[in-house]
Amino acid sequence: LEEAAFQLQQIFRIDISIALNILGIESMRAGHCRVAFTCFKLAADRGYSKAQFNLGLCYEHGRGTEKDLEKAGFYYCQAASSHHPMAQYRYARYLLQHGPGSPWDRHHKAVALLEQAAEAGITEAQAYLGVFYMRGLRPQEKRGLKYLLQAANSGDAQSRFHVGVCYEQGLGVQQDLAEALRHYRQSAAAGNRQARDRLRA
């Protein structure tokens, strides 16, 4: 009986958190940012990762509350620890730009989070890692190209442009101008100005 009561409490707690998070999303869409913030906060404090992520967004962008990057980082960290892929990406970005601790520890943790988010299909993380590996102190061009291709295949026109650059310059792949042109054309067709400029050049 105690076990059954505990299970019911857990279900009730999760259902309330889901409902509060949905109410927060609907309130945000309606422009009621303060109400949305309150709903997200209530659900986040119950441990609901989607609400923790949404609360992080509120703090990062100052929606319904004062802008506070430290609190945004805290809630992104909470959601990331529950394997929320977009929170992993946001928390990684926070660590690289504002995080506490030594630069080496922040860097190492951020890259691990970005890789998890990229593997979960987060296009922003794939694109970020692609450029990151291409431009690092010790570039890992093949690894960078892998992530750029993933992001490009998810529809990211900027990453498609970078893939074209890789083929044009032979970065992480055999130089192939025809393949570079193909990627530039696809990127330009998706509205990328750099790709249009490159095609004209």
From TrEMBL:
> What's a BP term from Gene Ontology annotated to this protein?
extrinsic apoptotic signaling pathway via death domain receptors
Q: Where would one find the signal peptide in this protein?
A: none
Mind telling me which InterPro entries this protein's record contains? Answer: ISR_Activator (IPR052748), Sel1-like (IPR006597), TPR-like_helical_dom_sf (IPR011990)
| A Pfam family the protein falls into | Sel1
GO-annotated cellular components: mitochondrion
Q: Which SMART domains match?
A: SEL1
Q: Which PANTHER family match?
A: DAP3-BINDING CELL DEATH ENHANCER 1
Q: Identify this protein by name.
A: DELE protein
